Each structure stands twice: as C-alpha cells, then as structure tokens.
Amino acid sequence: MSTKKLSVRATDIAEYIRYQSCDRRFKLKYNDYEFAKKDIPFSNLIFATSLDPVLEEEGRRRENEWETSLQKDSFLDLTKMSQDSDQENQPTEWNDFVEKLKNLSEKQKAYGREISIEGTLGEFNIYGQIDFVVLLWENDEPKLRLVEGKASRKDRTYHQVQVGLYQILVRQLIRKNSINICGIKLKPENIECVVVRIDENTNKSQDIIKSPALNLDTIETDINRLLASDGVLKRIVEMDLSDLDYQLDQKCSDCTLSVHCLAESAREKRIELLGIDSSIVRVLHKVGVNNLDDLSELDLEGTQAIEIQKDTSFTENLELLKLKAKTRKRTLPDGNSNPDTYEVEALPKYSGESQLPEHIINGESLIRVYLTVEYDYVENRIGALAAHVTKSQGKLDPKFEKNENCKWQPDPKIKEYIETGKDDNNKTVYQSKELEGKDVIKFKTSAWMGEYKEDNGSEKELIQGFLLELVDTIAEVAETEQAPIHFYVWSRQEMTQLVEGCSRVSSQLLSHLRELLGCRESLEQLIYSCLYDEVDRRYALGWTGRDLAVVTSLKWFGRRYHWRRKINGKIVNLDRAFSQDIFDFKNNLEIESNNQWATSKSNTDNIRKHPFEVRLRYFNSFSAAYWRAYWRKLPDPNDPKIKAKLKKSIERYNEAQTPNYLKEYFRARTHAIRWVEEGIRLKNSEIKKESLTIANLPDFNLGVDNAAQAGIDFLRLDQHVKVTDWIANNLVPPIYRISSGRTIPVRNIESYNNRLTAEINLDGYSITPELLQANCTIGEGSFVRLSPCYENPHKGQTINQLLRGGSTCIVNEINWNTKQIELSPIFSQSDRYRLFSNSYSNRNQEQIFPNATLDESPSDFIAGKVDEKLQNTQGNHVCRWLAPENPKIPPQITPLENDLEKYQNFLNSLPLANNKKLDDKQIEAIINGLKTRIQLLQGPPGTGKTETTAIATFLRILARSSPGDIVLITAHTHQAVDELLLRLGRLLPILNQHATNLNLNLSSIQLSRVDPKNKEDFQNTNVNSFSSKPCVNNVNKMRKKTVLVIGGTTNAILKMVNELNQRNNFLKDYPQGFQTTTLIVDEASMMVFPNFLALATLVKNDGEIMLAGDHRQLTPIITHDWENEDRPPVVSYQPYVSAYQAIQNLKENSDTQIPDTAILCSALNFTFRLPPVIRELIARLYSKLDNIQLRGKEKDKNIE
After folding, report:
1. Residue 526 backbone dihedrals phi, psi, to 5 degrees
2. pTM of structure
C-alpha cells in the first residue's frame, strides 16, 4: 500500500471554505485539476474563464503599497522582488529566506516577499506562498509575522484558514530545524499571523505592523480535523466524483469549475441542474429517481411520490420539480424531440397572481420605468444607471428578417407592435410601429480617484444627474398633469445598490428617490417589481442560471430577443462584443450519439454540436474590467510581459472602448427588461397605483443633509420594500410555500369574545404536521397576518386577500396536538407602516373565513410612531448633535474632582451580592461615563454589562438628578428592558444604603415600567407598572419629590410621551414638552438608528445618553441587508445601521475629531460566566476588531 502523501495547495483548502465546503470543487481542483481534465475534452474552457485582470491588478497594487510602507518604516528587503521588473518575479524558497535571516549581522527589522513553503499536515503535503514574512524584534527576541494581503473590505474566514496553514507549517519547520537570528533562537510561539486588507472605514490599506496578531487556535483545530486521516478532505479525494454531493447555486457564479459541473450534469441529465439542495437530491435518489428523465416522468400519485413526500427532509414541491425537470431537459441534447416541451414553461395555478401591475390603471396609462443599475465591484460603487421610460400599449419587438440567402437574421432596428384586431380566420393581427419611449443613460466616464471624498462626489454627481434627467423624461413621456408610475428592475440587488448609493453620498438623494418611487401614505401598492423574482416564481426555464442575459436567450412562447444594434453606422452584435463574463454562459460542445463527449478518436459521423450551459450566471455580472477598458486603465495587451491568455482577455474587454458600445449595451439591457415584462401575459389587476402629480416630482437639487429626514426616508422605504417582498412571496400558492415553515394553512376561522379560533388544515398538502411544526417560524406571541384563501391549496391568494381581506393578529396559543390556534386580532387602518386589519368585534360566535393562511406579518407598529416623532422634531438640538457631516455635540461638564473621588470610593467599596466587587474596567467605565455627553459601553458576553449599566444609571442620578427629573431606560425588546430595570430594582436597596453610609446626598428614586408585556413580572418588586394611556396622573404622582426612572420599549415610550404632551396638567411643569435628563439604551446594537434618534430627541439640551451593547453579537433586524459584503466606508449618514454602530461611526469617521467629552467609547473585558474554551474562541474577534483583550476566570475556578 502506498504511503505517499496527498499533495494540495494551501489556497485550495482556503477556497474549500470560501465555496461553502463544496466537495465537488475540491475534488475537481485536486492534483492540478486531474479529474477535471480527465473527464471532459474541453477542459481548456475552465482555464479560458476570465481571471479578472482588474482584481489581479488591484491585488498587486495593494501588495506594492504594503511593501512600500515596510520600506518607509526601515525594514530591510531580503528578497529584492522589484515592483517594476520586466521579468516575472520568482518566489523565494523558505530555506533560502532562512539563510538570509541567519546572516543578519544586527537586530535589523527585515522582510521577505512571496516566500514559498511546504510541509506535511495530517494526510497531506501542503504547499503555498506567503505574501510577506516580516522579522520584528520584541523584548530583544526575534518574531516572525506571516502576512496575507487581500483586496477585500471584510474579514473572511477563508483568509484566516490560509494564513493559519502557513503558521502551522512554519512552526513545524522551526521545531524541526531551529533558526538562530543574531545568535538568538526563534521560538515557535513567536510566529504570528495577520491578514491585512482594505479598511472599511478609511478605504486605505491596513497597516502590516499595527494590525493586531490573530488568535488562530480555533482555526488550527478546524484545519487539523480537515486534514486528518478520517477528515473530510481525505474522504473527498478517495470518493468517486459522481458520489459527491453538490448544489449548483449562486456561489458557483464566480467558480471556473462550473464549466465541468454544468456540462457533465447536462450530459448525465443530473437532477442538480435544477439548482436544488443536495438533501433533496438524496431523497429522490433513495426512491430511484436518479435523473431528469426519471423526475420528468414521475407519477405524482405513484409509490415513489408517496415515499418522497413521507420523508421529513423533503421540503420542495414535487409537482413543481417535475415540471422544472421537463423544461430543463428542453435545452439538453435531444431535448427538442418532445414537441410538448418548451424552453420556458409557465408554472401551474399561477393565474392572476403576478406582482406586475397592468399597463392601464383606472383608465390611465402606467408610466413604466425599466431600470438597470450597473455596479463597479472593485470600488463598490454605482458605475452606471440606465432607464427606458414608456407608456406605450405596444410590445417591444426585436424583429428577425431574411437576408439575401433567405436565412433569418436579427433586425438591428428595434420596433414595437400592437394588436389591431382579428383577421377572417379570427387570428390576431399585429401592426409594427416605431419604438415608443425615451432612454436615460448615465455612466462613469473617467476612473475613480481612490480618495473617498472625491469618489463620493463623483458618485453623487452620477446618481443626481441621472435622477434629474429621469424626472424630466417621465414628464416628457407622460404628457399629462398626473399619471401612475411604476419601476421595474431585473434583480432586487440593483434596487439595494441604488438605495445604498443614495444613502452613502447624500441622505437627501435617498429622500427624493423614495418620493420618485411612489412611497406614499398607504402600503397597499407596490413601489417596484423585480423581474428576476417574477420569472423564477412563475416559470420553469431551460437554463439553470437566472441573469437577464441567460433568461433572454430562451425562446418565450415563440418570441425571441436579440442584441444586434446599428452603432456608428455599423451592425454590431452586442452579445459578442460583451461576450466575456456576460454572454459566454453557453458554448457549443461536441457530443457523440451515445451521449459521450467527442474526442479526437471519435467517429465524425456520430458527432454533433450542441449548446451547453457552461458558466453559471445568477447575477448581473458586468465585469469591472469593462469600466477600466473604457477608461483606458487596463494593461497594454501588446506588452510582451503579458501572458497570451490575459492578452486575449484584455483585447476582448477593450471592445468597450469603441464609442457608443457601452451606452448601447446599457440601453439594450433596459429594453430586455421591458421585453421580458411585456411577455408575461397575466398581470395583476388588483395592484393599485396612485397617480402622481408630475410637476411635484422631486427636483433632486440637494440642500443640507438632515439626520432625522434620512431616518424617516429609510423607515418608509425599508417598509415598502418589506411589503413588496412579502407580497411577492405570498402570491405563491400556499401549497408551494408551506415547506418554508413561514405559512400555516387554517380553516374554520371563528370569532369569539374578541378572539379568533382556527384549525390547522393540512388536507391536500404534501406535508405532515410533525414536519410543519419542526420547520415552523410562527409561535406563541408571534405577530401574524391572517389572510383568506381558497379551499384549493394550488390556487394562489389575490392582492386583495393579502392586503385588504384579512387581519393582523397576535398568536395566543398553538396546540399542535389538537391542531387548534387562538389569535387576538388588532384593528388598524392602512397607513405607511400597517396593512388594514379587521378586528371582527361585531361578529361574535360566527365563522369569519372557511379557509385562510397564517403568515409572518409585514405590518410595523413601531415605525409609525418613530416617523411621527422625527417629523415633529427635525429642528431638535439632538439632530444637530448627530448631524452626519458636521456633528455638534456639546462637551459634557465634568464633575468636580472632589465629587469624582467620592464616586470612585463609592464604587470601589460597593458590596454586591455573593461578596462580589466591581472590577477595574467596570468602575472605569462608570466613572468615565460622567465625563461625556454620549457614552458607548461595549460589553462582550458575560462581562457584566447589565449590572454595570444599572449601577451607572444610579450613579448618574446621584451625580446630576433632582426630584422631578425623569430618566428613561429603553431597549429594542421587552426582555432587555425588563432585565435591566429589574436588575436596577434588586440593586437599589444596596446602592441607597451604601450612599447613605458614605454621606452622599441622594434624591429618592422611583422605578417604573410603561406598558410591560407581562405585568406579573413586576408584582412584589419595587418597580411600578402603568399604562401609556392614560398615564398623566401616574407619572405626575410618581415624579413628585422623586427622580422617576421609566423603562419601556421604543413603542411604549413614544406612546407615553405623545399622551403626556397632550395633557395640560403635565405641560404646566414641562411647557416645552416631555424631556429627560438621561437616556439609557440597552442592547443598542439591536436598535435601528432612526428609533434611537426619535428617543434621543427627548433628551434635554444639557442631558446625557448612554448606549450599552455589543455590535459583535447582535445587529438590527431590517428588511434588506443594506450593508453589502464589501462596501466602501460610509462616512456620511447610515440610517440602516444600529444605534450603537451609528454613534461609533460618528466618533471614528468624522472629519473633525470628536473629543471624549462629547462621545466616549468604553469597554468591559472580564467575562464572569464564559467557560475558558468559549472565551478563547471569541477572544480573537474582540482582540482584532476592538482591541479588547478578553479575560476570565482560570479553568479550575467556578464559572458564574
């Protein structure tokens, strides 16, 4: 038996993690693509897939930057890799580099670049190249720092895996062969690692020396498991490729090996072509459904289908999978042999359930805006915006005409056609006409400067110019005073990118965009439609990918789209000019009649060519290289140093330089979106669109940014996007969405004493009660939407049923054994944040609906109150404090030194339960909080954040409050509010007694809780609970001769404040309205910033704010992930981040330095309750990101 070690690159192991542990990818890339090359004769396509020269160049530029920084810091270059050499630089072998280290004559700082290393780990021989190895001296001892540089703005696990591998290898090598540098032995523990990248807050490269070393203990454990004799990677190498699970999904979009996976899957007609989870494939295989043929011919009433649906891990709908299999086969070899199959097939039972509005609404023509957003993913900025605006009732028609050889070819003149009636045979007659509509196209015509502010200005100019021209174009197309307007995008990521771009460069741009999109009073309208979702939900397609270029390549019920245009007097096929990275998703491959790939030995009589999908396109993949080509920033393809493959790639990208090519491509893309939308025949007549006054459309002339207005715009837009997505998801028939666990079908809904009862109904659904319960996201206490539905689960609900026919409810009880559910309906009229909701109070003991669904509720009962508060307080001093461009936070007046000493003594000697004392960091944070206007307290897990916050609240009252003052305690959830308030309640007797013992003057303190979720929690405590309405008598009574502490959620406090501000017997003491001296926000990392801002406006102009939280643990729950993975820093206002993060950004990223007397960041670092193994696991996160050295009890000590 061979004992030869398996050989693998360090980068391959890191990429295994990056590509979501894809076994198949690792197998195909193993041993220099051995299996990939063996299986397919066209493996050259794998390597022909573009390696983006822009990303390569960006990586080189950053590495050169890092090297220059080392040289400026007097580090000696030991490898002499010239940045400007005409010759390709060769890596330096580890042993050669070691010799250079040994030969240093003095304790000199030094570095080497591209150091190749090799060693054995587990069952594998690992080899790779370290970007930088840096020699440092610390306490007269040598230390080697291994550095990986990445052109990324986010920390990635796979980056740490790569450098972790190098650390293991280097330590292993120096244990085997010790290294003495200047006569001093290099210790294995003095090998450390960093990953440097682009700093997300400055857009600059991180400093190699200043970056804290990584704690890779956990990573090393994971690596050792992967590489062990019984580990995953050895299993992958030893298994047959055909036996490895895989899923073709969005992660494959940038994987070069999708050439192999797609082509081989197509040849073998594998079920994975449907893009479904591998667990679903396993269930199908288990009952003998092994390929697309089996699945497309499956008897839905047969034994196999019954067995499949019994399996609790099967969460797809079998009927849909069967149709998708039948359609996907259409583009495979011999797929056209069945005349009953088509490249595009409508999914069943979807009639009337589109998310597309009709083109005529209430007799008015809908102004339709087909929008495309092109992104520069290297700079993470918008590079182009294009829109096609029309109100035409014709359909865009890319014609095909016969040439002189009587062959059909695309007509470059794009026209449209209208139906003019019927002929004698009752067939529809069409008439061709000129294309009706106007186009707006703006794109970046020069390169980014690399300076954040300058590039912000350029992006702002691009977006603002586009939107200004778009408004003019809408007015020109409308030709009327009022008209309904609707936007269409291909993918929702495009709308996210546009909103994020507006928010980044100007909050007023975000405000104007919201108005233009039509976010008005009511939620009962869609503001835009996403064609990707519409197509994916309503149609089965012949390809696996879902990008616009992929979808428009298919024949849609006899209609075809083409990309041929006349540009500069010449006929140009844009799909050829921009083939690279966009249209190269398919390729003609040779295959034999026996369904084997053709080779040089094949009989030519048995060979045919067939178009196969070879690259998976899920996203709009406009390569950043096209931008650089247009800006003349790509390397010269004639440079002799450039390899042949890169030379050809650059030449293809340079097509974008040709005048008007880029503009016409963007125009054609907007036309393609229109073509798809018009080809979807059944629109939704229930979608309402209010007519907008054209003259009142925003002019996009920007004034001063306003934090409150940006918060309002974010809340409104986020809620509209949320409801748009909710509608799109719930237009899917109940039978197809039940497997997600977000829908419960019910029947016999009856009203009784302001309650509703219902019975879980799974008749006709292919799911067991046990499986639904296991997957269900709805539980007791959930806010749900009860919507009437049809008895037939295959029939989707209508817009009216979803938006206007039902009720928002709270789930009181779900009994899965009896299948009974009890609900409390909440009455509300429709507004910006809430759907109409019936209470059925006038229908006691009668049936409300025979059938309905329970879904997660899209209504927001808090945002409306936040919105109202922000509208009424835009001139508030706190809005000036937190202005994004020029924050004006008044410095806090520090207590007298003598008082500070008293408070310090109070804390040092404070006796807590179980003979505990506050630790030094807790005391420091509490004392320093008295010296600042706004304090951020970061409390990693188990560090006593709640106790520290409670005592800090007491000390602030002791230091600054007088009888009659009101202190607010708030948080995102009832639980967080209650926990802090009850903790303060338990501590209060101890704190009061200790203050008395030390002769400190203390006002009486009354604790209270407004609108608690469970009043019982405050029985037999020193916390009074009361209702927000009415409340004036309670509040006036409690604050009389005491400092009143009121705890409540955002919703409860704003309701209370609104009530108090309307009562004269409160306003006589507070003529300016409710104000607080101190605002305490717990779990501030969970509270979205607009909610915090609304509460902060209640703070007096000499008041103070404390935010406690940990942005490493919890983040706000919002509709969209507005925070992109690799976005540039947003120094200006970010309405979508948490309150904690927003204040931290203000402190760290403001142009003018904010003193600690205005904003102070404090941190706790001793965890009382985390076991050592868990503490060590998370310590590296806090060390690297926040410079917090997390400590804790020793292993043999009791953990609390």
Report:
1. -85, 140
2. 0.79
Burial class, 445, CB count within 10 angstroms (exposed 0-12 / middle 13-18 / buried 19+): exposed
Nearest to 39 by CA among 199, 218, 268: 268
Q: What is the fold of 870-1155? A: Rossmann fold (3.40.50)
DSSP 8-state symbol, 1191: E
Q: What percent of the chain has pLDDT over 70?
A: 91
Q: Give 438's strand partners.
A: 389
For helices 707-730 and 1089-1096, angle between their N-to-C axes, nearest 10 degrees: 140
Q: Give the burial string for 831-854 (b: 16+ CB within 10 Å, else e).
A: ebbbbbbbbbeeeeeeebbebbbb
Summarize pLDDT for 646-693 with one digit per residue, the tens. 888 889 999 999 999 999 999 999 999 999 999 998 888 888 888 888
By C-alpha distance, which of 144, 174, 165, 171 is closest to 220?
165
CA nearest neighbour of 1085 among 1120, 1112, 1060: 1112
Amino acid identity, position 1095: L
Antiparallel, parallel or unpaired: β 92-93 and 6-9: unpaired
Burial (CB count <10 Å: 0-12, 13-18, 19+), residue 1153? exposed
DSSP string, 1096-1129: HTTEEEEEEEEEEE-TTT-----SS--S-TTPPP
Helical H segments across 84-213, by residue range: 94-102, 157-176
User: Would you state the pLDDT for residue 1129?
Assistant: 31
291, 271, 288: which is closest to 280 by C-alpha? 271
Nearest-angstrom CA–CA distance, 212 and 513: 42
For 580, which DSSP code? Answer: I
DSSP-assigned letter for residue 476: H
* Amino acid identity for residue 903 in this structure: Y
pLDDT band at 1122 (very low <50, low <70, confident <90, very high): very low
Please state the separation of Cα 219 from the chain's center in Å: 25
Q: What is the rounded distance in angstroms from the CA atom of residue 495 to the CA atom of residue 486?
A: 13
Q: In the structure encoding, which two tokens stand for residue 775, read together?
A: 């997957």
- What is the distance of C-alpha 409 from the center of its chain? 42
Sign of CA dihedral 923, 928, 933, 939: negative
Q: Cα 6 from chain centroid?
A: 38
Contacts from 27-33 at CB under 8 Å and sequence distance 24+? Answer: 27/236, 27/237, 27/239, 27/241, 27/244, 28/241, 28/257, 28/260, 28/261, 29/257, 30/6, 30/236, 30/237, 31/7
DSSP-assigned states of every residue in 20-44:
TT-HHHHHHHHHHHHHHHHH-TTTH
What is the rounded end-to-end Cα distance, in angstroms, of the chain?
53
Coil, helix or strand for 516? helix
> CA-to-CA distance for 991 and 978, rounded, in angstroms?
19
Q: CA–CA separation, 547 vs 482, rounded Å?
A: 34
What is the DSSP secondary-structure string of 300-366? TTSHHHHHHHH-TT--S-HHHHHHHHHHHGGGSTTGGGSTT--SEEEPTT-TT--SSB-SEETTEE-
The pLDDT tens digits of the residues spanning 1030-1050 come to 999 999 999 989 999 999 999
Beta strand ranges found along 83-140 (DSSP E) = 92-93, 110-121, 124-138
Q: For the chain, which residues make up each domain, given as ranges?
A: 50-233, 360-396+434-540+668-721, 733-861, 870-1155, 1165-1200
Token look-up 């996210």 returns: 496
**Contact in structure between 142 and 130 (CB atoms under 8 Å):** no
403: how many CB neighbours lie within 10 A of its CB?
Answer: 8
Q: Which pLDDT score, from 0 to 100, does residue 204 have?
A: 80
What is the spatial distance between Cα 127 and Cα 150, in angstroms, rounded to a whole number?
19
Question: What is the distance between the alpha carbons of residues 1002 and 934, in angstroms, rounded to a whole number?
Answer: 23
In the structure, what pLDDT confidence band is assigned to residue 1187 with cuts at 50, 70 and 90? Answer: low
CATH of domain 733-861: 2.40.30
